[in-house]
Amino acid sequence: MEPAQAMIKTKLPKGFTSNSVNCGVRKYRPDLGIISSEVDMVVAGVFTKNEGRAAPVKYCQSILPSDRIRHIITNSGQANSATGNRGIEDNLELVQHTASTYGCLPEQVVISSTGVIGVPLEMKKLKRGINELHDRKSKSANSFALAIMTTDLIPKSVYKDIELSEGKVRLTGVCKGSGMIHPNMATMLGYVFTDITLTPESAQRYVRDIADKSFNMISVDGETSTNDSFFLAANGQSGLTLNDPEDERIFLEAFEEISIFMAKSIAADGEGATKLIEVQLKGHNDLERAREAARGITNSPLIKTAIHGEDPNWGRIYSRLGQFGVPEEMMNRLNLSIQGVPIVKSGQPIPLDYYKMKTRFTEDVIKIELDFCSGDIQTVAWGCDLSKKYIDINTEYN
Amino acid sequence: MEPAQAMIKTKLPKGFTSNSVNCGVRKYRPDLGIISSEVDMVVAGVFTKNEGRAAPVKYCQSILPSDRIRHIITNSGQANSATGNRGIEDNLELVQHTASTYGCLPEQVVISSTGVIGVPLEMKKLKRGINELHDRKSKSANSFALAIMTTDLIPKSVYKDIELSEGKVRLTGVCKGSGMIHPNMATMLGYVFTDITLTPESAQRYVRDIADKSFNMISVDGETSTNDSFFLAANGQSGLTLNDPEDERIFLEAFEEISIFMAKSIAADGEGATKLIEVQLKGHNDLERAREAARGITNSPLIKTAIHGEDPNWGRIYSRLGQFGVPEEMMNRLNLSIQGVPIVKSGQPIPLDYYKMKTRFTEDVIKIELDFCSGDIQTVAWGCDLSKKYIDINTEYN
Questions:
Q1: Which of A292, B21, B72, B376 could link B110 by a cystine bridge, Cβ 3.0 to 4.6 Å?
Q2: For the domain B2-268, what is the CATH code?
Q3: pLDDT confidence of residue A180
């Protein structure tokens, strides 16, 4: 797996091309991108559970899963959310304009948007941008990754080649964070492109399962955006299928690995973040509540500020567990370790060398391990610390 | 109603005395306080729903409601939470020491604690402090209000005299915030003392009802403490009862007024707060979900930072409603006003003069009005903005 570095191209699978332009909504950087397939592709997606779904989300939900998609277009800077009926019309107009520019049907175009909520799309600029996009093509995902960024500091893309029984397949992932991130899904946009052959039904099942283990387990600020979307796109251009169960296992393992890698990269690049927080929870007896407990920690402002201050204030972790997902009898069995150092054993605090512990908090990744000794359920959640920079970004962003 | 000012004494009702000392847990300021009644009093309480309840909370829940309480003792600086079996024993020892010092039974002593979680109580200092407390008495609540503060900037106490059909009654409230505030209950400690006569059953009913409209509707940071407690203490020394329904109405109105006043004062004095946020919600059809929606706004980090930045970024309010408590069909009927200026009408955004709106955000209280035009349910929630000071306080506090 090759994480994106400034000088490393994130290669797309066979039959995919991509590009981006600055259409003028944002000042300089690319703000409109497209990924296209030479042939019809299967696309499935999972979307925000926010009841105020943005226009592009409603549109995607109405056409996906589908086995005849050609283009996925994405604009950044304006979310086309809380834009009322006009937003629905604008969204459709963009889809139609893309279809006529690229010579396909509107229902072959998938669209996603991210940015400020409550302002109408700047249609003239976007339409001009689509015309401009049409004349350029690239075989890497890098410029698309750049175009979908909002407050992200790092463009996020990754690819992995896997060996199946009858040949090679590639998976390429692209995503963006970095505020309003508490997916259920966050605006988190995520895309995985592959040249395997999938049916719409299997693509839909895969994308839902993997979302629950990756993007749905991260939190930057506990805010669920109106635009969260995670897509799996498969164009079959490798000529291979997943009919062999062992091939399916290998593919899903790679899909999960790439998705967790992207999810962690969003958490680590959360607005103002300086540290990645990883919560490894086991010994619970209920998956939903276990996830709630793990995510309760990653979205606790008091824990996030303590970690930012490199202060091993573990009492805040204890309190947060009691607020979310952990009944009292389990609290009494809790084993808690931070950075590998045992802090609580069977619900009882272990005397702690505060200053020794404090030095462990200077590390870039803070790992919190929880064992409730009450069942077989385990889960992992990721988040980031809360710094003054988050306040800066969000008092000024618009 | 007389809010506490530096130079105004917060008078206690008949038959109550109070005092506080610095016992040495904190550096200078009072950290141990007591309020006593000359005669047995009725005390009822509501407590945190955090599953990791602190030792004093477990103890109070085991003895309340009761009609024979004499003393309410409170220490600040150490929460006696996540302290395991030792915490339970320490708590009991403090109760017993108070009882023997004051010449009553242990079950006549109520106790609450607030401060750092996960450190054992400094018992020697506390016991010496209790001895010292015994030799002093005051008829005002001011020094008790000072003793229970943690990161509060302002001691919070208030009293109100009401005229019932057969005479006068006084209600005196004392409380503290100011982080880990998202009661269900927050460490939020609240006390209302009165000289009316109540039964344990009516006191319990009153305190639960009023908590739901006051302390349970504030949020500073979405954290539910392990120590939240709200007590109603009635010693009957006015010689009056609430047998007349009109008297009961007047009493409850005053109890609610005082409790909301205290709850708002906690929100306004939240850690790092510079503005009070008030969300007035109506037209919902479900009280639980309406409260969830209103509180979803007051604990949204993105809304709190926008308000801190005096930025009328209303799209964040829209998004948050869709995340918590408001189904899509209600989102489509939403009328939203901020500072009296209509922003959304029937789910559609109204063109906004951004710079004119921005000047309204410079005010100290930001009022958000929501009408879902879907029912008769209304509710109010209070919170505060999120500033860099919150980060400062919580990266350093311990």
A1: B72
A2: 3.60.70.12
A3: 66
